[in-house]
Batch of 4 targets.
Target 1
Amino acid sequence: MIKHAMTKFGLIVLTAALAVGTAYAEEGEGLLASNSSVGNIASLQRGAQTFFNYCSGCHSLKYMRYSRIAEDLNLSEEMVTKNLIFTDAKIGEPAMATIKAKDAENWFGKAPPDLSLEARAKSPDWIYTYLKSFYVDPSRPVGWNNTLFPGASMPNVLWELQGVQTAELAPAKPGEDAHIEKLVLSKPGKLSPQQYDETIRDLSSFLQYVGEPAAMKREAVGVWVVLFLAFFTFIAWLLKTEYWKDVH
């Protein structure tokens, strides 16, 4: 009876796990692989530089302190103060946006969201794909639109690096509306397409790190934990063999 109950419980857990996995798979459909990594310190440093130069004017990281960034990314306080802090904030304070929330609400109608947990909520692949999906759209208030997030109120703040993309429409079939077939780089930016991909990959990695700063240490310690468990399992198997050798 106990065995039957355990089997039934195992099937319930397995079904739930498969359901969760399917939900994540559906959510990630159509996203480009960012290949982000929180283990590459140089990439995180470049991502931090991109964020604070292009994103921190409107977006904050209110759950991340500058001092933590300095510690984790092997940066001195002087380097962070000089290159990443563009407000009157101190090194031990959270990384808040340059624009004030009240001013943002008056100018834009709504304050830009905090991005501390953006990578955890939507994944680094979503951020990477989003930053590759802007195109010129004169019908929008800011002149830009996004194929991943249609109607996005955010302009393409990285257009100088990426260049300007325009949308090419696929031929419409009778009774159907025309849809975007692909985006074409109509005006090159300061970076080549490959360099731009690397830049937003670094930015995605940085936001992934911000979403879970402990991941860096967790992944480093995790290898040793797995090795310890493997060694302990081997010792336990030897001990079990020794105890039960006379019974068998």
Target 2
Amino acid sequence: MNKNLANYIWFIVLGFCLMSLSKCMWRANHSEINKSDKEQFYKKLYLINVNDQNLFNDARIKGSINLAFNEIENKVKNLNKDFKTIVYCTDYACTESDRVAKVLKNLGFKNVLIYRGGIQEWYQLSLKDPKDYPFEGPATTKFLKRPIEKMDSDLNSNEIQIINAQDLSKLLKISANK
């Protein structure tokens, strides 16, 4: 094989390896919540969906970011702790949003709220009024269409504030227009 051709191939392979390595390093350095335009749909407000990735992809309040419980500390370290932070999960029976909200409070977030109705209630409201309840995803999960069962929570109301769907809708409209 010609020595020049061998060097040329070696440089191409080296370049490819370096590009792959830099891409992996970029992903590692950006494992926090990415502050892209989509995720910053609302101004001075974080809307956090704590459902697993599959459910998040299927159904979410428009502008939500996904945050699993085991990722909290790594993903929120660069977020502004003064922003309103609203956490929600599947429905009134889900307690994952309570757990995440408590952790966020312990990490220093000053204005944490929980939307108890979750994606189930929001989805059903969006069917009646998509303008006031913006929704994203194909919504193929069956529980979304089941009757809503409101439940009391063990969460002390002095600990973390609860927000209902109507107030959340108003807050999101205000935040989107700022």
Target 3
Amino acid sequence: MSGYCTLLRTTLFIFLLCSASLSQAQDSSYVAQPSTSQVAITGNTLSEQPLLPEKMLFTQRVFWGPNGLLRVIHAAPLTSEGRQKEQKVRGFMLVAHQVTGYATLAGFVMQGILGAKLSHATGVEYNRLLSLQQTTLTMTNIAYGTTALLSLTAPPKIRTDRKATSGGLKLHGYLSLIHLTGFVATNILAQKATHDSAFRPYQPVAAFTTLAAFAPALIALKF
């Protein structure tokens, strides 16, 4: 069971790290194809209105791009009507992203508290706290992974707007890199601490550092 959990966590870490890196690259290089546009009437003239934004995350392109998985299997036709429906799905997923984010935040707080207590606990008390800490860690991992996936795989917006480049969203992105690093460190240190007591003092530090980046990242979405 321990080996399975370790494999699951490692797979999640690799996916998140790759997604974050590739997303940054795709943000600056991807341009929507000419075929992904519709003709709109503005006054007495015709103008092209793209169905997809010029920039998309790598994970969004995999599912929602012109040749994405959902387009290929005809689950989400790339039409004006289809894109309008996708915006409703996007709204729901981003609201869920914030909800699971707050659940993750609570998990990080609990991790920090339990980690601090574990660093001074011994005997039966240590075993009790360790069991509770491992359960909390698993639940926090699930919440964090769900939060990330909801954001990375939500349908892209119809067009690029000023809000997409707002300071709040940029700050959210920068802080995401910090709390992702802290998240990975917290898991590694928690695993190490079960076999070597020398790692115990560092696990709560990593957890609180992750919390210090994660909480402002959630707040930044409001701006």
Target 4
Amino acid sequence: MIKEIAEKFDLKKDTIRYYDKIGLLKPSDRKQNGYRLYSISDFKKLSFILKAKSIGLSLKAIKDLVNMYENPSSYSCKEVKEVASNEISKLNQKINELEQMKKKLIFLEKSCLNDSSRDASNCSILNNLKEKNL
């Protein structure tokens, strides 16, 4: 049942329900009362999902990899690698964006006179944010 799988993996039941909703982790069966029943295979699949999530893969990439994991003879290693390569490209883009944000924040920090006796009405950080396109 959902409670057991959530406790086993230290997840909220809502997370398991969400994975079900998006088709990532469908229960093997359902009771008449609607309770989800999970098999050993489902536990292994969730473990796979969580490992993929722990390295920062997107849910779309995880869905693709789960499909490949469940149907390995339908895919080539090259196709699996393409999923990883696409995720690396996305991470590199995010890293570049974060580096640009960091540079702008460093600029703001360095522009500060750090005069603790003054109020913030003439704060260079606030003024730069207000007036300049960073």
